[in-house]
Design goal:
Shape: globular
Order of helices and strands: HHHHHHHHHHHHHHHH
Largest sheet: none
Amino acid sequence: MNDNQIEQDSLKAWLLAARPKTLTGAAVPVLIGLALAWVDTRSYLAVPFNWTPAILCMAFALLMQIDANFINDFFDYIRGNDDADRRLGPLRACTQGWVKISSMKRAIALTTCIACLVGLPLVVYGGLEMILIGLLCVVFCFLYTTHLSYIGMGDLLVILFFGIVPVCVTYYIQLHTCTWQVFIASLACGLVIDTLLIINNYRDRDNDREDGKKTLVVEIGAQATEWLYLGLGVVAVLMGITFWMNGHVLAFLLPVFYLLLHVLTWEKMRRINYGRQLNSCLGETARNMFIYGLCVAIGLLLI
């Protein structure tokens, strides 16, 4: 896309800065948590499914993802990591001049505040512990880009904040408990979402090494990363056997479709190996993880 066609601080510029394609990563864990909660509230007639906190959970997750994208855009520009000549990934708003630096600062502050205001009513449904969880989400949203992604903790944070936390908390708000089956489902979800970070860092491994960014990919090398990418999807689907154990056979079988797509993307990833062409694998991975979320949710709801 020609940056000359984009007016600074325009609606189009902010849409690009928000990175709408990444929002599936925030939506999928909440979707799975809601599907699990819906099924279990049907089993316990005294515990009705509440749509208000369900909507608030989804809105909070989406807003935090947009906030994380703004923060990443801003701080990577400040660090000089988004040099337009070296960058292999999609173009970024601050680097391209689509958004003023001062405007991005205000957008980060505003989005953070709105996310907190949206999440605050969840205290009514989940208790005061929701405040602590919300604060942790905000703090680690900043720490990820500014520090933790540089010391190889990115994958752990993805599994935690795009798997365990959103799935378990979304479920907990509805039923005020969390089962080991829900935890396994949340962990599987986190592994699937992490494939997006893996392919992103796989593409950027040489630039990250030069910048002193010690991602997991930089530490273990390209070949091991390729097998890790494949393994995350395989393990996630196999962990779905817990759905089968609870009588939800389709929630285990339908994600096999995701796995087939995941394997095809993996083969393409190995074939391309390096460069901007890997962005197509990034897009496919985002699609695949969304399909995984739909397959699990549909499988749970059908039986």
